[in-house]
Amino acid sequence: MPIRIRQHVNPLARKFQQPIPVPDWQKIYRQNLPIHLDIGCARGKFLLDMAQLEPNTNFLGIEIRRQLVDAANQTKDELGLTNLHYLFGNMNSSAAVLLESLPSNSLKTISIQFPDPWFKKKHNKRRVVQPALVEILVEYLVEGGQVLLQSDIKEVAKEMSVRFASNPLLVQQHPTTWLDSNPLPVPTERELYVLSQNLPVYRVLLQKHSVSE
What we know:
By secondary structure, this protein is α/β, with parallel strands linked by helices. The chain has seven helices and seven strands, in the order αβαβαβαβαβαβαβ. The protein has one domain: Rossmann fold, CATH 3.40.50. Helix content is about 30%, strand content about 20%. α5 links the parallel β4 and β5. It is globular. The longest helix is centred in the middle third of the chain and has 13 residues.
């Protein structure tokens, strides 16, 4: 009988407030390479494809649904990928501890793609991009590092964009409000579905500059 996987998980539930246990990164990754962090990686197929396409980058996916993480790690182990790992947990309760544990100056790219929109106003606080998370992510992102945000819900994309753009160290990398195309070589499953329906994808790409710039 197939295992039922919940589509929506309340990140504010008590069981998701414990920080993600920090692994021994030397045992996780074979080499100390720049890291691409994907928050809310779902089944992890985007990262699975990216890890095979870009062997000179270490990929890390964070997902709040344990069953998806367990299945994704099993697949990457079967493929023998040593530049990819998935962690179960809530990034909003784990960011500081987790990012501090990473090798120094390794966080090069952050992607948050098609996060749960939590449409009801009273549930907006459940959205993954909260101001405190943005502050921590930008702190650990290397100078020149990039943040890619994507959503098919304009309100969600705008909220994410405003919260990241409010950090003075981040500069939008395109002159228009939304980026026309995905700068990454691999689309997510959700992106492929949205585009197949001839619906818009709202994208923003930002880069971290030094204080003196």
